[in-house]
């Protein structure tokens, strides 16, 4: 589809959505109170029913029953479902990507990249199914064996955010399934159609390989539906991705029933650019991380901390790149910045820019709204704002494309500024000086879960553990040993002797 922004018609997008859903094998849902909108025009694609309290309860019950059998299926066999899912995702990569664009407003390459990330994590999970390693350790007692084994945990409740409507689900679900858990998914109420599609593909994958499709349940609706999942004692782990505000509500409720929580919350990511940095490379990394996905990634670069000697030439390069960014219809090739998700996101951006100006900030470029096809569509030029200090608005996460620029003179000062925010997700340093790079990665360097050198803050690979510290919630998902969050550990001591020695040499005779 190639259209001037102002000519886009919702009727065309509705038809596009209907065709994609058909290709993905999704039955038209029963109309209801939940509205699936496209940020491309702000218009309604279709409506569907939110899950009732009884339906949520029944979904959890089905997942709980399915778990009892699923946990005994050998992990490499459980992986067959994920292998089939990966094949279906590969077959429907473009379809699902198009649906992500329609529902979340991501540009085509990023939307397809998100589906590719799902495929990548499926492959990781398949390999993992043969590597759920426990450990053995020397026992202090003769004739004894001491070891740790990992077992399936139970029902995993997945609550996901609008901005990664499919990848975050796959990170959780592919790993949880090979670990022997079952899943109840509460997607964002902003992206119910991608959820229907993923749920359909997974159930189809399960049926295709002769596994129980009830291992996956979908419940739809707003916060109240999520709250029911959070409060249900049958849900062993609540893996929640979204704002810090949501995490602050969810974590105490799960803790109150001694459930487990895996939190992936907001970030306020920064990059330090030192005098030795390759400014050309830094500019490319910064522009993708700050303006990509219209600033709506948890890892979006929101703060640039540039050495005073390079700040001006760097800003010249960044502003010149920003002026060339095409903002517009994300379905159109060549567009690099799509719409904000909704009016609230736009209002949040406006309010943050006003506060930054009141604090003495100066807009270097961008920040203005571009006329879209409808007053309910929100297209903006990504903004760069030079700040005199790291004021309150800079320390908050505004989920929109605003890059605040701060300057420093000494690396210690830069690291202090870098860490002086409540969130701790992603971070980078651009430098060609190894001492500076190592200083940034050291224990008293970046305090984030992700710390990069000479690449931006966004666009993580699935192989590493993903997540952040402080108000980002401390959870880790995706690669490395994140799987341990989805399993329970048992320590086993086996006595193969004829004696019964006690640990610590205790005698009880
Ligand atoms: P949000 O917090 O508004 O909603 C996220 C999900 O939580 C939705 O499904 C929502 O319905 C649900 N929810 C909200 N309140 C709830 C409650 N009280 N109980 C149970 N569920 C509840 O976030 P959003 O606007 O969809 O997404 C943007 C936010 O997510 C940003 O802050 C972003 O940084 C963050 N995010 C973090 C990561 C990460 O991995 N760290 C990834 C993606 C997004």
From TrEMBL:
InterPro entries xrefs: Ald_DH/histidinol_DH, Ald_DH_C, Ald_DH_CS_GLU, Ald_DH_N, Aldehyde_DH_dom, ALDH7A1-like
Gene3D superfamilies: Aldehyde Dehydrogenase, Chain A, domain 1 (3.40.605.10), Aldehyde Dehydrogenase, Chain A, domain 2 (3.40.309.10)
Subunit structure: Homotetramer.
Residue ranges of every copy of the Aldehyde dehydrogenase domain listed in the record: 33-489
Keywords of this entry: NAD, Oxidoreductase
CDD domains: ALDH_F7_AASADH (cd07130)
GO molecular function, one term: aldehyde dehydrogenase (NAD+) activity
Gene source species: Nocardia yunnanensis
Family under the similarity heading: Belongs to the aldehyde dehydrogenase family.
Protein's name in the database: aldehyde dehydrogenase (NAD(+))
Pfam families: Aldedh (PF00171)
Entry superkingdom: Bacteria
The keyword Lipoprotein is annotated on this UniProt entry: no
SUPFAM superfamilies per the UniProt record, alphabetical: ALDH-like (SSF53720)
EC number: 1.2.1.3
Catalytic site positions: 264
Coiled-coil blocks: none
